[in-house]
Amino acid sequence: MPQVPTHVRENHEKTAHLLFQARATLNAVERIAEDVSSNSTPSSESLHVLIDLLRDKLNQADRAHELEWVGVGGICPDMTPEDIARARGELGGLS
Asked: Which of 40, 38, 37 minimizes the C-alpha distance to 29?
């Protein structure tokens, strides 16, 4: 297993921290939306739609972040051997 260069590890950790901060921000917005949801208005309904979309995008970003890490030689215990091989370019494109 190749060792991940220090600068790659540090960049990965910075991105992980930013994703964590984005999730914390989303949690705060969800709390606000709970307070606003008692007044069912188009704006409050739109807020819930945006929260769901943002949550989905953050999940996609987390997955891409894991794939990048594995692709440069890192380890992610949640990935299947097929996911790992695909992230490292051994099986073709990513799905």
From this structure: 37
- pLDDT tens column, 49-91: 999 999 999 999 999 999 999 999 999 999 999 999 999 999 8
Q: Residue 19's CB: how many other CB atoms inside 10 A?
A: 14
Contact 72, 6 (CB under 8 A): no
What is the rounded distance in angstroms from the CA atom of residue 89 to the CA atom of residue 16?
23
H/E element holding 17? Answer: helix 6-36
Q: What's the pLDDT tens digit per position in 23-59?
A: 999 999 999 888 887 777 888 888 999 999 999 999 9
CB-neighbour burial class of residue 51 (10 A; exposed 0-12, middle 13-18, buried 19+): middle
CA dist 22 → 25, 78, 95 (Å): 5, 22, 24
